[in-house]
Amino acid sequence: MIDEEDDIDDDDDSYGEGPLTGLLTEIPNILDPKQIEALHMIVKSCILDSAGTGLTRTGENLQKTRCRMFLALDCGKSLLREMLVFIAVWEKDEQSLIFQLTSQLVEAMHHSSLVSYAWNSLRIPKDIISPAQTVLLRLVNHMFRSRISSPPQDPKDRTRDLKLVMFFFGFFRSRIVPECVALMHLQAQLREDNSDPGEFPVDTWDMERAKDGLAQYLDLLTTVSEIAYSRAMLIEWEAVYDLITLLNGLEAGVPKKPLV
Fold this sequence. Notes:
Elements: H1 4-14, H2 23-26, H3 33-47, H4 62-72, H5 74-89, H6 97-111, H7 115-121, H8 131-149, H9 155-191, H10 204-225, H11 228-236, H12 240-253
Protein name: Telomere length regulation protein conserved domain-containing protein
Family: Belongs to the ataxin-10 family.
């Protein structure tokens, strides 16, 4: 039995200094691209209700059950993490088959209201935002972009969308934005020679990952603000407050480039 502490150590080793490595990120050294795509297809066939079977005789939705089993098992969560990291490490764009397959998996998880659980399961204690979480944000943003041209007609679907937006908004407002602003404040102290660079709590590698994750979140806010039924909620939640806070932090912590 692997205890939680050992599991955390494994995460740190897998996503520590240097390039990200793991199960799927090493597979290109063994399998060719078509075989890697087949792996994603196998996972998709297990999670998606492609045949449209609907409910069983006992009233059970097998697609939702499979999604729950996938995320309930440690091996399923590890596989999901590696599938997401694979997209980042091998720089898969939105037109690639692997990106499209993974986006369908995320959509299926959203239909089962499991994206928030997946987000929490992808967390790495030492990271502000883990690489897998950043890719998940990118996939969620891709999912919401389709809502701009074809918004859901079912009120239940809209409610589910709003709950997911509320989850990410609350998570970033309460945890991620304050941490990023705190780092910007420390950067400002360094610029003013009021602090020792050796006391800065994170290295460049961790800063880059935090920046990438924050950028994906801001992209998500941009997309959500273009959807009528979610734009009203952003106004009600005063989302502009977070943007102004980040801009003030950048103003103090990052030197401006000259206009000329």
